UniProtKB/TrEMBL annotation:
<keyword id="KW-0411">Iron-sulfur</keyword>
<dbReference type="GO" id="GO:0051539">
    <property type="term" value="F:4 iron, 4 sulfur cluster binding"/>
</dbReference>
<keyword id="KW-0408">Iron</keyword>
<dbReference type="Pfam" id="PF12831">
    <property type="entry name" value="FAD_oxidored"/>
</dbReference>
<keyword id="KW-0479">Metal-binding</keyword>
<keyword id="KW-0560">Oxidoreductase</keyword>
<dbReference type="InterPro" id="IPR039650">
    <property type="entry name" value="HdrA-like"/>
</dbReference>
<dbReference type="GO" id="GO:0046872">
    <property type="term" value="F:metal ion binding"/>
</dbReference>
<dbReference type="InterPro" id="IPR036188">
    <property type="entry name" value="FAD/NAD-bd_sf"/>
</dbReference>
<keyword id="KW-0004">4Fe-4S</keyword>
<dbReference type="GO" id="GO:0016491">
    <property type="term" value="F:oxidoreductase activity"/>
</dbReference>
<protein>
    <submittedName>
        <fullName>FAD-dependent oxidoreductase</fullName>
    </submittedName>
</protein>
Length: 179
């Protein structure tokens, strides 16, 4: 039997963008669900051996940090864990944050645990979506080892990295996305 749960916001994808969206929603007081198909948060940085973050700093001499917010919270947690002590310059002189994927997994787990309104489901795969007649998203259907779920929400964020939710909705609505 499918379990039905409702949230203010459902985020599909637990990489950097999905974590930022989910934490931002939780900080704003929303009841939020973050659905990740892999066994850890972090996206490509923890699941595909992409061991650096780019874009925190300008391409200048010296580089200046221009990204803060949720990303800054991650950097602070990594620093507390002894896994970040500043940027490194790449071969093309870009300032990058090199990552230890296990430390990053732990830091991201610590980060999402700070927010009581944020629930995380790992090893959970989105398999379909329901839309209303006007094309807006009403719910998504997911599966994990414990069964199938229907997650309803006022807002959905596709941070899957592959556009999985957008693809499902486009396929179902002949290419028109309204939500």
């Amino acid at each position: 039997m499918e379990k039905v749960q409702s949230y203010d916001v459902v985020v599909v994808g637990g990489g950097a963008a999905g974590i930022a969206a989910a934490v931002g929603a939780a900080q704003a007081g929303a009841a939020c669900l973050l659905v990740e198909r892999n066994g850890s948060l972090g996206g490509q940085a923890t699941n595909a051996n992409v061991a650096s973050y780019c874009g925190f700093f300008t391409h200048s001499n010296p580089p200046q940090q221009i990204v803060r917010g949720v990303g800054q919270q991650v950097l602070e947690l990594l620093h507390e864990l002894g896994a970040y002590d500043g940027y490194r310059l790449s071969s093309v002189q870009n300032a990058i944050v090199t990552l230890d994927e296990e430390a990053l997994k732990y830091a991201l787990d610590l980060l999402v645990q700070r927010y009581s309104g944020l629930k995380v489901l790992l090893h959970c795969r989105m398999i379909s979506a329901q839309t209303s007649p006007d094309g807006s998203i009403q719910s998504i259907h997911c599966v994990d080892d414990e069964g199938t779920y229907e997650f309803r929400a006022k807002a959905f964020v596709d941070a899957s990295g592959d556009g999985n939710l957008a693809h499902l909705i486009c396929t179902q609505n002949s290419g028109h996305i309204k939500n």
